[in-house]
Amino acid sequence: MQDNIEIIKQTKEFVKQRLTGEGSGHDWWHVVRVYNNAREIAKRETSADIFVVALSALLHDVADHKFGFSDDDRRNIITDFLARLQVQSEIIEHVVYIVNNISFKRGTNQHKMTTIEGQIVQDADRLDAIGAIGIARTFTFGGHFNRPMFNPEFDTNIVGQDNHTNDDTISHFYEKLLLLKDKMNTASGREFAIIRHQRMEEYLANFYSEWNGEL
Ligand code: ADP
Ligand code: NI
């Protein structure tokens, strides 16, 4: 097996090439932030295998279902890549398991990560969906798909409500972003999420008061 530092370096190159320029909020810099978040959480969760955390964070959005890839496509792409670097097959299996189970939609399908490494990477990805960065990503996504930022005529925003008929960006806070703090797996992930959640609450309060003409 090649040395872990070299494997991480080559994985970064691979992911960077595949995701640079992606326009809906899953670009290379999203991956870098998730990788950094994951390493910060992993430092606090002493039993975690840092190598698995790092590989999974880097590969977590490669061949995403949003771009038409299936779970099997993703398994094949990641397995081929890591096997070429002579990564042990148990590690490859673990990374594929994490990447195939990380997304929020699966979270609502009662899927629970069973390994601490998976829990850490999922928390790291969720942290990047909330707070100041989460707000920016969400409006970027809305712009990418030509959505209005807010439509007060809906006026039905309640946390936890699936507003799939509302196509404004503010609705996404209520159908997803404000729920994430209570879905964190690790204690340190939860601590960071509470701070980021607060930032979104403040942002929304300011958004509504400015919208309503308060100077
Ligand atoms: P995940 O990759 O966590 O399963 P998604 O790919 O659905 O989740 O969402 C990733 C990010 O894209 C969200 O955190 C949000 O910033 C943005 N996004 C997704 N769906 C919407 C939407 N309907 N409106 C605005 N932003 C969205
Ligand atoms: Ni992600």
Brief sketch in words of this structure:
With 215 residues, the protein is mainly alpha-helical. It has ten helices and no strands. Residues 25, 66, 103-105, 125, 129, 134, 137-138, 141-142, 169, 172 line the site of adenosine-5'-diphosphate.
Provide the fold topology.
Layout lengths: L3 H16 L8 H17 L5 H10 L11 H14 L4 H12 L3 H5 L7 H12 L3 H14 L24 H7 L11 H25 L4
Helix pairs in contact: 1-3, 2-3, 2-7, 3-5, 3-7, 4-5, 5-7, 7-10, 8-10
Helix percentage: 55-70%
Query: How many distinct beta strands?
Result: 0
* SS-derived structural category: mainly alpha
Oligomeric state as shown = single chain
The chain-level mean pLDDT equals: 90
Low-confidence stretches: none
3D shape: globular
Which distinct ligands sit in these coordinates? adenosine-5'-diphosphate, nickel (II) ion
Which percent range describes the beta-strand content?
under 5%
**The biggest beta sheet, please?**
none
Amino-to-carboxy terminus distance:
62 Å
DSSP helical segment count: 10
How would you characterize the overall build of this protein?
The protein has helices at 4-19, 28-44, 50-59, 71-84, 89-100, 104-108, 116-127, 131-144, 169-175, 187-211. The chain is mainly alpha-helical and 215 residues long. Helix 1 packs parallel to helix 3 and helix 3 crosses helix 7 (116-127). 33% of the residues are buried. The model has no long low-confidence stretch (mean pLDDT 90). Bound molecules: adenosine-5'-diphosphate and nickel (II) ion. Nickel (II) ion (NI) binds next to helix 2.
